[in-house]
Amino acid sequence: MKPLIAFAFTVSLLAQTKAFVTSGTSWSAATNGAPITVECIGGGGGGSGGGTATYLAAGGGGEYGKVTVAYTSGASIPITIGQGGTGTTGDGTNGAATTWNTNVLVCNGGKGGTSAGGSGAGGTGGDWDTAL
What we know:
By secondary structure, this protein is mostly beta strands. The chain contains no helices and eight strands. The chain has strands spanning 7-12, 16-21, 26-28, 35-41, 64-70, 76-80, 98-100, 105-107. The chain has a four-stranded antiparallel beta sheet with strand order 2-1-4-5, with no helix packed on it. Strands 3-6-7-8 form a four-stranded antiparallel beta sheet, with no helix packed on it. 39% of the residues are buried. Residues 1-6, 9-14 and 124-132 have low confidence and may be disordered.
C-alpha cells in the first residue's frame, strides 16, 4: 500500500484556510497579494535489512521547511511531492525532494538506511529563493 503523500499550505486572509494537494498539481493563487505560509516535508529514506537481516537501519526523515510568500491572483504555482525511498534487504533508497514553485521552497528527502548497520541520515539543508 502506498502512503498518502500531501503538501500543506496556509492562506492567511480574514480566516485561516488549510489546503492539501497531491503531487504533480498546481495551486492557483487567489490571495490578491496577501501572504501565504507554505510548509513541506521531503520524502523519507527507505530502510535497510542487510542480506541476512542481521543489520537493520531505518531511513532518515525528510527535511521540513516553511516560508511565507505573496503571489498575484491567478498565478499558477507548480508543486512536486517527494516520494519516500524504498526499503530493501540491501541499502534503502533515498527519499525525493518536495518542492513549492520549483525552487522557492525545497525540502530534501532523507537518506536511505545502510545494510552495514548504519542509520540513514536526515535530509540535507534546504534552499529557498528570497528574491521574490
